[in-house]
Design a protein that fits this description.
alpha/beta, five-stranded parallel β-sheet, 38% helix, 130 residues
Length: 130
């Protein structure tokens, strides 16, 4: 059984990097991609992903606004914010908005891999918000 991932970022290059990362890992498949919060909600509703990787700074409905709506639609689906703006979330209770982990893009794919593993094993996540 593979884990189906929805990637939400308005930069094609970043989506490509995240896509390549997940496709290189055994047990993952990309079920969809979105460029803004509204498209993320629509695709999440339609595709029912097992994991959502979400940027904060996306158009029309940013990641912080989209996350609680996504969590309401899919309460058991982990949401990882993978963002350049992780430092802005320092001190915030991201679980309140439905986010399971925050990963700074500057920390790269190893940090994303650690967070993915943590959310699926329900381990504590070391993130920019702790």
């Amino acid at each position: 059984m593979s884990i189906r991932v929805l990637i939400v970022d308005h930069h094609e290059q970043i989506r490509g990097l995240v896509r390549a990362f997940f496709l290189s890992e055994f047990g993952f498949q990309i079920c969809g991609e979105a460029v803004d919060g509204y498209e993320a909600i629509m695709k999440a509703q339609l595709l029912k992903p097992d994991l959502i990787v979400l940027e904060v700074a996306i158009p029309r409905l940013n990641g912080v606004e989209a996350a609680p709506k996504l969590k309401k639609l899919l309460p058991k689906t982990p949401i990882i914010l993978f963002t350049l703006h992780a430092s802005l979330l320092r001190g915030c209770d991201t679980r309140e908005i439905g986010v399971d982990a925050v990963v700074a893009k500057q920390d790269g794919m190893p940090a994303l891999a650690d967070s993915v593993k943590a959310v699926f094993t329900r381990s504590p996540v070391t993130s920019a918000t702790k």
